[in-house]
Design brief:
single chain; 2 domains; alpha/beta; Rossmann fold; 284 residues; globular; six-stranded parallel sheet; 9 helices; six-stranded mixed sheet
C-alpha cells in the first residue's frame, strides 16, 4: 500500500517584478539538501490591493514564512500583526514569520549586506554614497551606520524620501547622513570610500547602466551592488575597470537567506550549501 506524501511546508516571496530573482531555486535546493518537505514560491504582486489580499491569505493557506521584496517592504508593515525592533527602527520589512497564527515582520536586508561587505573590507570609518533609498536601501543605510561607517550620503530622485531616510539613519545611529539630489551622471563627493547601488538599474533582463561619473570615483573605492541577477552587473563591471574592489548582490542574498532559513526552519545551514545552490540557480 502506497504511503501518502506529507503536505509540503510553503514559503515564498511577494514582490514586483520577481521573475529574474534566483531565490526560489536557491531555497528549494537547500530545502532538498536538508531533506525538508518544503517549497518556495515567487509571487508577482502588482499593486497594494493585491498585496493586502496576498498577506491576508498567508494564514489560511498555511505558509510558514514569506520574503518581501521591492516595492512592498514599506507598504507591507501595516498589514502585519507585529513588527520586530529592526523593522521599527528601519521603517521596512523584508520577511515574515508565522508564530501562533500571527504575522511577524523582520528586516535583515542590512545584516546581509554588512556581512557581505565585511568579507571584502571593514565598514568602520567608511564614507559611503548610496544610490537609492527604498525599502532595501533604507535598511542597508541604517545597518551600515550601525556597523561603524563614518558618514553616509543618500542620492535619490525623490527629495522627500531621501531626506526622510537620512533623518532615520541619523536618529537610529547618530552617524552623519546627508541627502544629495540624483543627477545624471551622479558625481561623488570628495573623499568617498564606498559607493553602493541600491536601485534596480542593472538587473536582468534590462541591464541598464548606473549613471555614475566614474571620474569622480577614486580607484580603490569599494563598489557594492544589491542586484542578484546577473552577479556581475554593468555597475560592477565599470567599477572593476576603474580599479575598484567589488561586492555583488548574490553574496548579500546568500548572507541574508541563511539567516531567514534558520529562523524559519530552526536549522543552521552551511554557507557552502547556499553558495552552491545560488550558483546553480544562476547557471554558473
Amino acid at each position: 500500500m502506497s504511503q501518502i506524501a506529507p503536505q509540503k511546508q510553503m514559503t515564498g516571496m511577494l514582490g514586483h517584478p520577481v521573475a529574474e530573482n534566483p531565490i526560489d531555486r536557491m531555497f528549494d535546493a537547500v530545502y532538498a539538501h536538508h531533506g525538508l518537505h518544503w517549497q518556495f514560491w515567487k509571487n508577482d504582486i502588482a499593486n497594494e490591493r493585491d498585496l493586502a489580499l496576498a498577506v491576508a491569505a498567508l494564514r489560511p493557506l498555511g505558509y510558514r514564512g514569506m520574503c518581501i521584496t521591492v516595492p512592498w517592504k514599506v507598504a507591507v508593515m501595516p498589514l502585519l500583526d507585529e513588527l520586530d525592533d529592526d523593522v521599527r527602527a528601519i521603517g521596512a520589512a523584508n520577511y515574515i514569520t508565522m508564530r501562533d497564527g500571527r504575522l511577524i515582520g523582520h528586516n535583515n536586508d542590512g545584516k546581509g549586506v554588512v556581512k557581505a561587505i565585511a568579507k571584502v573590507a571593514p565598514l568602520k570609518g567608511q564614507r559611503v554614497v548610496m544610490l537609492g533609498a527604498g525599502g532595501a536601501g533604507r535598511a542597508m543605510a541604517v545597518e551600515i551606520a550601525w556597523a561603524g561607517a563614518a558618514h553616509l550620503t543618500l542620492v535619490t530622485r525623490r527629495e522627500e524620501q531621501g531626506r526622510e531616510v537620512a533623518e532615520r539613519v541619523r536618529h537610529a545611529s547618530g552617524v552623519p547622513c546627508d541627502w544629495q539630489r540624483w543627477e545624471s551622471p551622479v558625481r561623488l563627493p570628495t573623499g568617498t570610500t564606498m559607493i553602493m547601488n541600491a536601485t534596480h538599474l542593472g538587473c536582468a533582463p534590462g541591464l541598464e547602466p548606473v549613471p555614475v561619473d566614474w571620474e569622480t570615483v577614486a580607484p580603490g573605492c569599494l563598489a557594492v551592488d544589491v542586484i542578484t541577477n546577473p552577479r556581475l552587473t554593468p555597475f560592477l563591471r565599470a567599477a572593476r575597470e576603474r580599479g575598484c574592489p567589488v561586492v555583488d548582490g548574490v553574496e548579500m542574498l546568500v548572507q541574508l537567506a541563511m539567516q531567514i532559513f534558520e529562523r524559519w526552519t530552526g536549522i543552521r545551514p552551511e554557507e557552502a550549501v547556499f553558495q552552491r545552490a545560488v550558483a546553480d540557480a544562476l547557471g554558473e
